[in-house]
Amino acid sequence: MNINKIVAGMLGLFLAKKGIKSLAKKKALRDPDILAQIRKIQADVDALNSKLDNMRD
Amino acid sequence: MAKNDGAEELANLKHSVAVSEIKLKTQKSIYGTELKISGNLKQQVKEKEKLNELDRENEKIRLDVLNLEKKIGDKAKEQEKGLINHLKKSATILSITKTMQSAIEKISATQRDTANHMGVTLNKAAKINKNIAKELALSGQVDTTRHEILETMHEMDDVMRSSNLYNEKMAMNLSVTANKLNISRTEAAKLSADMQMIDGASAEAAESTLVLVKNFADAKGVKMGAVMKDVAAQGKAFTNWSGMSLKNMMRTAVETRKMGFELSDAMNVANKLLDVEGSIESQMKFNVLTGKDANFDKARALMLEGKHAEALAEVRDQVGDISKLNILELQSLEQATGMTRDKLMTSTAIKENAATNVELEQQAAEALERGDTALANQLLSQLDGTTAAEANANAQTNIQESLATQFADQKKMKNIMLGIQIIQGTIAAISAAKAVAELTAASALTMGLGIVGILAGLSLGVAAMTGAFSSTKPAAKKPGDLGIDPNGGPVVMSPKEGGLFQGTKNDGISMSPSHGVNGGGEGSSGVAQKLDTLIEVLSRSGTNGSSAVAQKLDIVIQLLSQQRILNVSGTQLAEVMDLERVPVGIG
């Protein structure tokens, strides 16, 4: 029974740790500043890709 | 826009960056080939400049992505900290469960106490407690408590033998009166019940009589407590012997006390004097021996009239000074009167020295005689039943018990207790995890130990409590009621085992005594083998390989998400963890 408690406790610990980290990252990615930055870089990358595609034209 | 767009957009961005790098690499490769086969130097220089510019742009984007990832990491840490703080604040729920447990224990103890005290069922006890709480609340009474009222009721029940003849209100009033008069509640209850049953008095009249007797005792300068002691010892025998009412018996007890006698003395003297033939012979003998002229005829007549105190006074006066009587003379005195030397001498000394306020005594005697209820109420209102501290303690007890009676349904309380048991079981499991973390010194295990307790406690506790208070749903009996991560699978909690488990949405986890015995249970051998392998790996890593242990435990979680049944051999795990004994606090 004690070993069961230990196992249960360890699993609970890891699940909670992962849960909190995952939730924190999801929240961070929903931050408007972050989203704006992602979109800005995405636009830059799209422009670069476009330039690369048209380099030989 | 979906909630996880940020994650998707980030993934798309990373993909685009990878694509641009491939494209750039391809362009560089083409440029290299062209350089070998083409002789147009100007064109080559132009292309080289263009490639360099695109390369710089690409480098800048890569740098931007790195900065972005750092920013996301910082933001996530900030969010994590916020979540943890929020959860820490929610830790109060744990103390609430303890308070609730304590309250339920109090309710249960109160109900059991009442049931045992009154010899009734728990359900009847709950009803009695509710009535007592109602009476206490209605009157705002702090001069008594439920327990004291119960004591009173118990005595009343003993005398009256029927619960129809008394009620909680009567018992409460009597308990308060006894406290105010500072006399034994049990004696007060017995006397009151006897007055109702034998004298035919009403409950109010019986209560007033007690107050008026106290008033009479005060007027006589006699302590009520001493009178009550005499009444408790001899009262019943005296009333049976004399045929007096209880009220008059108490009055006689006060009067005889004032003279230095007790009820038993009155009975002894009366028994001697009313043995007319023997008494006269003893009287003559006493007179001959002492040369006195004692005559007990008047005392005898007073006894027959029921005026015991006056009869005793008459005997004392007839005997006169006895300080110089010899042994034979004292023996004859005892034979003639039934009284001993010390009692008579004490009585004589009191007569000579004690101050007497005849008018006050007379008024008190008349009030007692007519049963002056108004005076009794007035006197009672002037008395304090409790000290300030006692009143405060009683008030707190009464409030607690009053609230307790509102939730006196044992079936509901059992459900609440189950919920609390689940929360505490979870906490026990977390304590176990903490102990293991310390034993293995695994840094990966040190994060947020308290959080797990709170997280698990919160989710399980709220689910359990919600179920417990619901009249239609049993508390937390279904695994579906419980959950930690809404994106994860079912969470199974065993209050007895103190275990917490989670699988995927489609998974189920079963635990029973048969699982884990002899290396595996039915249908779980595959998982058992995988776990054995894991344990071997863990064994090799040793206690110093903390990060390895942490990684391998991640595999356990992964296994859980793949298999329906988890089977853990306790012996094997104990060996892996190098547990020489069960960690402190677990068991």
As a whole number of angstroms, the C-alpha radius of gyration of chain A is: 22 Å
Instruction: Identify the overall geometry of chain A.
Output: elongated
N-to-C span of chain A? 73 Å
Largest sheet of chain B: 2 strands, antiparallel
Helix content of chain B: over 70%
Q: If interface size is counted as residues with C-beta under 8 Å from the partner's C-beta, which chains form the largest one? A: A-B, 49 and 83 residues
Structural class of chain A: mainly alpha
Helix tally of chain B? 24
Task: Return Rg of chain B in Å.
Answer: 45 Å
Which blocks of ≥5 consecutive residues of chain B have pLDDT under 50?
435-484, 494-499, 508-525, 541-546, 563-587
Strand elements of chain A, count:
0
Number of strands of chain B: 2
Instruction: Output mean pLDDT of chain A.
Output: 82
SSE sequence of chain A, one letter per element: HH
Detailed description of the structure:
The complex is a heterodimer of chains A (57) and B (587). Chain A is built from two helices and no strands. Chain A has a domain at 24-57. The mean pLDDT of chain A is 82. By secondary structure, chain A is mainly α. Chain A starts with a helix and ends with a helix. Chain B is mainly alpha-helical. Among the domains of chain B are: 5-89; 259-354; 410-576, no CATH class. Residues 435-484, 494-499, 508-525, 541-546 and 563-587 of chain B have low confidence and may be disordered. Chain B has a two-stranded antiparallel ribbon. Chains A and B meet through helix 1 and helix 2 of A and helix 1, helix 2, helix 20, helix 21 and strand 2 of B.
Question: How would you sum up this structure in a few lines?
Answer:
The complex is a heterodimer of chains A (57) and B (587). Chain A is mostly helical. Helix content of chain A is 88%, strand content 0%.
Features:
heterodimer, A: 57 residues, mainly alpha, 2 helices, 0% strand, elongated, B: 587 residues, two-stranded antiparallel sheet, 24 helices, rod-shaped, disordered C terminus
